[in-house]
Amino acid sequence: QITLGRATKDNQIDVDLALEGPAWKISRKQGVIKLKNNGDFFIANEGRRPIYIDGRPVLGGNKWKLNNNSVVEVRP
């Protein structure tokens, strides 16, 4: 699994999105990408703001299947 978000001294993550813009708008744990047993990748939004997959919003608390070449956007 890969964690996306904003790293702090108490919170280490795999992909630090704070380096890409207004960090205060990104949750410490914005999302998690997981590989399922069947080989599918899913992203779960664990933040307050939507994560966009191929232009479609995935709201907090929801997950979405990632396809080959999916575009993942976290907008501030």
From TrEMBL:
Biological process according to GO: positive regulation of transcription by RNA polymerase II
Pfam families linked to this entry: FHA
A GO cellular-component term linked to this record: Ino80 complex
Stretches assigned to the FHA domain: 2-58
Gene Ontology molecular functions: G-quadruplex RNA binding
PANTHER family: MICROSPHERULE PROTEIN 1 (PTHR13233:SF0)
Protein name: MCRS1 protein
